[in-house]
Amino acid sequence: MKKSIIISVLLITLLGISSGASAQKLWTEADRTYTLDNLKRTRDTLIRETENLTDAQWHFHESPDRWSIAEVVEHLALWEIIWAREIGISSRNTPQPELIKTSHPDSYYHDFIMEEKSHISPAFSRPTGFIRGKDNLTFFTRLRDQNIAFAEKTDADMRACFELTATKDPRNLHQVYIYQWGHVDRHLRQIRKVKAHQNYPKETVSTK
Questions:
Q1: Which of 175, 22, 16, 15 has the alpha carbon at shortest distance from 98?
Q2: How far is it, in rounded angstroms, from Cα 6 to Cα 12?
Q3: What is the model's pLDDT at position 78?
Q4: CB atoms inside a 10 Å sphere around CB 207
Q5: Which residue range(s) make up the domain with 125?
Q6: Can you give the CATH number for the domain in which 120 is found?
Q7: How many structural domains comprise the chain?
Q8: Residue 79 within any structural domain of the chain
Q9: Which of helix, strand or coil describes residue 172?
Q10: How far is residue 197's CA from residue 187's CA, in Å, rounded to a whole number?
Q11: Per-residue DSSP letter, 134
């Protein structure tokens, strides 16, 4: 009888350990911190680069076919909506951790979003140019703050939830976050390039 009880206790203990191991999330708190740090860093850097621009500086074009800083920031804000939708929907999908084995590493997505080669923006994310100056920054920061709040609170396993699952290149939501903050880093380079143009207006807004 005692032996039977001991065996039962051991089985229950082992099942509990197994269950706990299987429930362990792939998206760690370190991953969450890394994501939040970069979402906040890129938001804050964009604010510093643009918050004191004059209207002329916001809307300066290096050439007729190039975006102004206002249009760049509007484009970033539009992508914040797109990222929020992608992450919000995909985080409610059934986790598929088995896809980790065949998906690209994080570095693949980081290297792509940060490459020097020009990317062609899809039509749905191209700026309208209708928004004036600093209103573009307000548009972006409001959306980015909402996305940060979601990342802070979500219980979803962002490394086990995937999008593009019907393709040969599914990506998990941690990797989508890499695209999200890396996309801002990418366009910060573009903003600095606009500012460095020889014809860029030099006047500044008083911060007093």
A1: 22
A2: 10
A3: 98
A4: 6
A5: 26-195
A6: 1.20.120.450
A7: 1
A8: yes
A9: strand
A10: 16
A11: T
Neighbour count for residue 40 (Cβ, 10 Å): 15
CA distance 15 to 64: 66
List the structure tokens of 138. 């307000």
pTM more than 0.70: yes
- Cα(77)–Cα(125) distance, rounded to whole angstroms? 9
* Residue 103 burial by Cβ neighbours in a 10 Å radius (0-12, 13-18, 19+): buried
**Dist. CA 73–CA 184, nearest whole Å:** 9
User: Residue 207: what pLDDT?
Assistant: 53
Is residue 163 situated within a structural domain?
yes
Residue 2 lies in a domain: no
DSSP label at residue 59: T
- Domain assignment of residue 159, yes or no: yes
DSSP-derived letter for residue 98 is G
Half-sphere exposure of 140 (CA within 13 A, CB side): 32
Q: Which residues contact 207 (CB under 8 A, 6 or more apart)?
A: 52
SS (H, E, C) 122-135: CHHHCCCCCCCCCH
pLDDT tens across the length of the chain (208 residues): 555 545 444 444 444 444 444 468 999 999 999 999 999 999 999 999 999 999 999 999 999 999 999 999 999 999 999 999 999 999 999 999 999 988 999 999 999 999 999 999 999 999 999 999 999 999 999 999 999 999 999 999 999 999 988 888 899 999 999 999 999 999 999 999 999 999 999 976 655 4
Query: What is the signed CA dihedral for 144, 145, 148, 154, rounded to 10 degrees?
Result: -120
